[in-house]
Amino acid sequence: MSTLPAVLVTGGAKRIGAAIARSFAAAGWHVVIHFGHSRDQAERLAAELPSAETVSCDLADAEAPARMIEQLAARLPDWRVVVNCAGVFPFDDADALDPALLDETIAVNARAPVRIAQAFLSNAQAQGGRRVIHVTDQKLANPNPDFFSYTMSKHALAASIAMLSMARRDAADRIYGIAPGAILASHDQTEAETDKSHRMNLLHRKTLPGEIADAALFLAQGWLASGETVYVDSGQHLLAQDRDVLFLARE
C-alpha cells in the first residue's frame, strides 16, 4: 500500500486525463487511473509511472461510481484529490435532441462525477483537506447550440461546484472546476482543422494538455477559496462564438 498522497483521475488513461495523471505522478503522487473501456492504455500508463494503479468503472451505471470510491477509500490512507475528467462528447444540436443520448451524457458527465464527489467527501481520509476538481468546459461562459446535450451536462456539473462547496462539512475541503477550451482534436477533425480551430481564442495560440494538468496540480494545493472555477483556454470563453470551433474552422 502506497503512503504517498493519492489522486484519482477519472478517464485517466487517455488524452487530457493521461496528461493529468503524468503530472501528478511526476510531482510525487500515487495515481489511481480510472478507465471505462481503455484497459490497455490505462495499464500501459500505470506501468510508466513511479506509483500508480488502475481501476475500472462504468460511469453510466447509477451506483457503480459510489461503490468504486468506497472501495478505494477503504485502502488509501492519504487520498487527497479526485479529478473528474472522464466524459462523453457526442454530437447533437438544439434542433435534434436525442433523449437516449441526453440520458447517457447527463449520466456520465454530470451524475457520475457528482456521485464520486459525494462519496469521496464522505469516505476518504486525507491530510490537510480533500479536493474535488471537476473538468467542465469554456462553453459555460461561451455557449453555442452544437453538442447540445454535452453542454447541458457541463452546465449541470458546474452548478454542483457551488452547491457541494456550500454543503461541505469540513472547512479544509475544496470543490473546484477547471474549464478548458479546445485542447485536442475531436471527432473527424483533420490536423489542419485542429490547428486552426484551437487558435480561435484571444491569444491565437494552442492551449496544451499540460496546462490543464498544471492547473489541476495548483488547485490540489487548496489555495483558492472553495467553489472557484479556473478557465484554461487562452481566453476563448471571452469570445462570442455562434458555433463550435470544430465547425467554425471549416467555414
Structural features, described:
The chain is an alpha/beta fold and 251 residues long. The protein has a single domain, classed as NAD(P)-binding Rossmann-like Domain (Rossmann fold, 3-Layer(aba) Sandwich). 40% of the residues lie in helices and 15% in strands. The chain contains 8 helices and 7 strands. It has a 7-stranded parallel beta sheet, with helices on both faces. Helix 1 packs across helix 7, helix 3 runs parallel beside helix 4 and helix 4 packs parallel to helix 5.
Short synopsis of the structure:
This protein is of the alpha/beta class. It contains eight helices and seven strands. Strand 2 (30-35), helix 2 (39-48) and strand 3 form a beta-alpha-beta unit.
Supply the number of helical segments. 8
Structural class: alpha/beta
| Backbone shape | globular
Number of DSSP-assigned strands: 7
Roughly how much helix do the residues carry, as a percent range? Answer: 25-40%
Q: Termini, distance in Å?
A: 54 Å
Tell me the layout of helices and strands.
Blueprint: E1 6-10, H1 15-26, E2 30-35, H2 39-48, E3 52-56, H3 64-73, E4 79-84, H4 99-123, E5 131-135, H5 148-167, E6 174-180, H6 191-197, H7 209-220, E7 229-232, H8 245-248
Parallel strand pairs: 1-2, 1-4, 2-3, 4-5, 5-6, 6-7
Keywords:
single chain; 251 residues; alpha/beta; Rossmann fold; seven-stranded parallel β-sheet; globular
